[in-house]
Write a structure and sequence with these properties.
The complex is a heterodimer. Chain A has 15 helices and two strands. Chain A is mainly alpha-helical. Chain A has one domain: ABC transporter involved in vitamin B12 uptake, BtuC (Orthogonal Bundle). In chain A, strands 1-2 form a two-stranded antiparallel sheet. In chain A, α4 crosses α13, α6 packs antiparallel against α12 and α13 packs across α14. Chain A is globular, with a radius of gyration of 22 Å. The N terminus of chain A is likely disordered. In chain B, the strands form four sheets. A six-stranded mixed beta sheet of chain B has the order 5-6-7-3-8-9, with helices on both faces. Chain B has a six-stranded mixed beta sheet with strand order 15-16-17-12-18-19, with helices on both faces. In chain B, strands 11-10-13-14 form a four-stranded antiparallel beta sheet, covered by helices on one side. Classes of the chains: A mainly alpha, B alpha/beta. Chains A and B meet through α2, α10 and α11 of A and β9, α10, α11, α12 and α13 of B. The complex binds adenosine-5'-triphosphate and magnesium ion (MG). The site of adenosine-5'-triphosphate (ATP) has 21 residues of chain B, from β2, α1 and α14.
Chain lengths: 335, 498
């Protein structure tokens, strides 16, 4: 029957009214990101047993250079994924931007003008994606599958499939120059983009809206959040990010090819997933997406250095995604 | 049907179809269940009671196997290695496959061999038989409909049929009536009574004492994860004693009487018009909406700017207004608590902080998510005495009734001029209901217009100044003033049994 209830509640229950200290909160929020960062270190050390060269400055700089375009692209894709959408068109946008830039260089336009025109490609593709998703109300997967297909084909059409060598003697400075002495531009761009985006997502109301829409778009609408506007914005951001990534890469490679972005879309989505984003939306972080992109690049670099046939790259990346997702899930279940 | 009257007598273990002993469960640092007991006899309807966060849902999840227990034992028919099909949870929704037919939903889950031929005819017959046990009419009518076309209560019936056809002997129902109208609840209860006579036991969680008295034989009361009352016959115990055992003030059983006229600062006058009806509400009034969803939802969607074209016309202080979007409505001072917590209310992947301040951000056109928001959110939690480990926790770490309070907490800071509530007491415990009624009256006294849709007539009668009744077709069928308000008049005007 009625037992005596010993009141231990006050002692055991977490005390409401107290908020954990900032450091504790940050380690909690960035648990996944910290885990990935450590995994990257472990991976680098692991590779160094086969190939000590991996940990030299020269190679780390190679990794950073190779990772930069993927990082920028992943940030854009992450924004879309956080709203529970998907952007399959970024690889095509990357290629198409490169070809448009190549044509502009052939017409001997100054490189800053070329950059502006080329960024318009991403802007246009993003606006088409965003418009079809929000105004027409089509599913993001379908919409971006369409723009992916069209973009991929157009990047062959406009130069008839020929690659274009960039002759402009100054264009390399976009990637390799030092606007701030001592920091190469591509590092600067990536750092700025990641920090800015992370601040927007955490500290600006519009950033919280991105997650709110991914979490529950009906509730978001009833809470007065401009769901269509934000959705449109993330697709545009994703398109522009892909274009900028393409320019950075072009500035380094100086050769524009129609297939340049073919593999990048899957890698960018994988980077977001490794970084802790859920494809259902509402979770993840810009830092996570960046770390995911770095991890993928480290794997590619390692596969090359160890001398494994590069056909295996995809298999290794797939295995790493699996491990990352399993670890992420395990840490979430336990907490 | 034999009404069991024992308390702790008859401890012969095999007498119980389900026996959960000394169950312990913690989530991280939160100790949720601390030696909870639950014993259910064959053919019994057993009520599991307790305040919000007492651990009822957690106990049900442990018994049904979706959470692991830390300590304790669960036996079925006295055996510790139970047949997993003997116990079935009937979820409120979502557990069915919406695009498959009713029949498929019933027979697919317990096919053992994935490649066996389905034997369409046999499966259909089996599904029909199971559904007929629950509701013959439904079995005749809907067997090959996609589940998405069924009403909520009909989906619950399908879930029960599915459980029965898998051989379940104990049904666990966690707040099954929260989203049902009165007559739908009656139908559900009729089914459960009939099943009890056939030896199927039911465990029922509900916060409505009236319902529990009407249906259950025995109750177990949880408080902070302990069974403070263990198998007490409901005929032997008063409501007050139960509420006291739950740890709430027994005076909380009845809602407060409405207060007098609003503050002198009452200025605003709202007129709601649709073909045939015109309603005028002033600041300080609580206007109730009663009846089947079709009617009230038209008024509500217009008020909160959710529907275009609007079904009703709104005039505020003589000026026609139209809210083209929820954002406009919020900035004009309309607050809204949705009745569909999971679908339209909670932002499940965002911390409690964002859930609380979301509306204020839009109302104030904020750009920065400032650190002052944390203070505001914490104040809201304290004011509504919401039990949450921290404002950084996810909403799913608090109980169902507590999530409901989070929805109300959203509107403390924006202080809306018009507060639109849909079933705000859904799933909250008796003590909290009392607090919410007081909040509603306080908001009105502060000069707010409250528009409140509820399917519980008793709370409308106790709290509202006036009630608009809608009939089953969604037409406004009458406006009842305070002195005309009672269950008989409401049920006549709404066409719903009371
Ligand atoms: N996943 C979780 N992580 C942390 N705490 C949890 C989790 N799930 C539940 N809790 C805590 O366990 C306690 C009991 O929750 P439970 O949902 O069982 O309550 P309940 O009795 O069903 O309440 P209600 O009547 O509101 O539905 C609550 O205090 C809640 O905060
Ligand atoms: Mg519950």
């Amino acid at each position: 029957m009625t037992e005596v209830v010993i009141d231990q509640r006050a002692a055991d229950r977490p005390q409401p009214g107290k908020r954990a200290s900032l450091v504790v909160r940050l380690t909690r929020i960035y648990r996944t990101e910290i885990a990935i960062a450590m995994a990257i270190v472990v991976l680098l050390v692991g590779i160094s047993f086969w190939s000590p060269y991996v940990l030299t400055w020269g190679n780390l700089a190679n990794i950073a250079q190779a990772a930069a375009p993927l990082i920028l692209m992943s940030l854009g894709v992450f924004l879309v994924i956080a709203t529970s959408g998907i952007d399959l068109s970024v690889g095509s946008t990357f290629s198409l931007t490169g070809m448009v830039a190549g044509l502009c260089f052939s017409a001997a336009l100054p490189w800053p003008v070329v950059c502006l025109i080329s960024l318009g490609v991403g802007l246009a593709v993003g606006a088409i994606n965003g418009g079809l998703v929000t105004v027409v109300g089509l599913a993001p997967f379908v919409v971006t599958l369409i723009t992916y297909a069209i973009g991929a084909s157009l990047s062959f059409v406009i130069t008839n499939g020929h690659s274009i060598a960039i002759a402009d003697p100054n264009f390399w400075t976009l990637n390799g120059g030092e606007m701030i002495p001592g920091i190469t531009n591509f590092v600067l761009f990536c750092a700025l983009a990641v920090i800015a985006l992370e601040c927007v997502l955490r500290k600006l109301v519009v950033g919280r809206w991105v997650f709110a829409i991914g979490s529950n778009d009906k509730a978001a609408r009833l809470l007065g959040i401009p769901v269509h506007g934000v959705r449109f914005g993330v697709y545009v951001a994703s398109g522009v990010a892909a274009s900028f990534a393409s320019l950075l890469s072009l500035s380094y490679i100086s050769n524009s090819e129609s297939t340049a972005g073919a593999n990048l879309m899957l890698q960018a989505i994988a980077a977001c997933v490794i970084g802790g984003a859920s494809l259902f939306g509402g979770t993840g972080s810009a830092i996570g997406a960046m770390l995911g992109a770095i991890m993928i690049t480290v794997i590619q670099n390692g596969v090359n250095l160890i001398g494994i046939n590069s056909f295996w790259q995809g298999t290794v990346t797939g295995a790493v995604i699996l491990v990352a997702v399993l670890i992420d899930r395990a840490t979430k279940v336990r907490s | 049907m034999s009404a069991p009257r024992e308390t702790q007598a008859g401890t012969n273990a095999t007498a119980f179809v389900l026996e959960a002993k000394q169950i312990e469960k913690s989530f991280g640092a939160t100790h949720v269940l601390r030696g909870a007991n639950l014993r259910i006899r064959r053919g019994e309807i057993h009520a599991l009671l307790g305040g919000n966060g007492a651990g009822k849902s957690t106990l049900i999840r442990i018994i049904s196997g979706s959470h692991r227990l830390d300590a304790g034992s669960i036996s079925i028919d006295g055996r510790l290695d139970p047949n997993p099909n003997a116990i079935a949870v009937v979820f409120q929704e979502l557990a069915l496959l919406p695009h498959l037919s009713v029949a498929e939903n019933i027979y697919l889950p317990h096919r053992k061999c994935a490649f066996a031929r389905l034997g369409e005819a046999a499966c259909y017959a089996e599904a029909r038989a199971a559904l007929a046990l629950v509701d013959e009419e439904l079995a005749e009518r809907t067997l090959d409909w996609p589940v998405a076309q069924l009403d909520l209560h009909e989906r619950q019936f399908v879930e029960i049929a599915r459980a029965l056809s898998s051989g379940a002997r104990v049904l666990l129902l966690d707040e099954p009536t929260a989203n049902l109208t009165f007559s739908e609840t009656e139908r559900l209860f009729g089914i459960l009574r009939r099943l009890a006579q056939q030896g199927i036991s039911t465990l029922l969680v509900s916060h409505r004492m009236g319902e529990i008295r009407a249906l259950a034989d025995v109750c177990t009361v949880l408080r902070d994860g302990r069974s403070v009352l263990d198998r007490v016959a409901l005929s032997d115990i008063s409501d007050e004693a139960i509420v006291e055992a739950m740890g709430q003030k027994s005076s909380a059983v009845s809602p407060p009487a409405p207060r007098g006229a609003p503050a002198a600062s009452a200025r605003m006058q709202i007129v709601l018009r649709s073909p045939g009806v015109s309603l005028s509400v002033a600041s300080g009034e609580v206007l109730g909406l009663a009846g089947a969803p079709a009617g009230p939802s038209g008024v509500i969607e217009t008020l909160i700017g959710a529907s275009r074209p609007a079904a009703w016309q709104i005039t505020i202080d003589g000026i026609d207004v139209r809210f083209p979007s929820p954002a406009e409505a919020i900035r004009a001072g309309v607050g809204y608590v949705s009745g569909d917590r999971a679908e339209k209310g909670i932002l499940a992947t965002l911390p409690i902080l964002d859930n609380i301040v979301a509306a204020a951000r839009v109302a104030d056109r904020r750009i920065l998510a400032s650190s002052r928001e944390a203070t505001a959110a914490q104040t809201a939690l304290d004011m509504l005495s919401i039990k949450a480990s921290s404002i950084d926790a996810l909403p799913q770490t608090v109980s169902g009734g507590t999530q409901q309070k989070l929805l109300l907490a959203r509107w403390l800071a924006p202080a809306p001029k018009i507060l639109v509530l849909e079933e705000p007491t859904r799933g909250v415990d008796i003590g909290t209901k009392r607090e919410i009624y007081a909040m509603i009256r306080d908001a009105a006294a502060a000069g707010c217009v409250v528009v409140w849709w509820s399917t519980e007539f008793t709370e409308l009668i106790a709290v509202c100044d006036r009630v608009v009744a809608f009939d089953l077709s969604g037409q406004a069928s009458g406006v009842l003033d305070r002195d005309e308000l009672d269950e008989v008049s409401l049920s006549r005007a709404t066409g719903m049994a009371a």
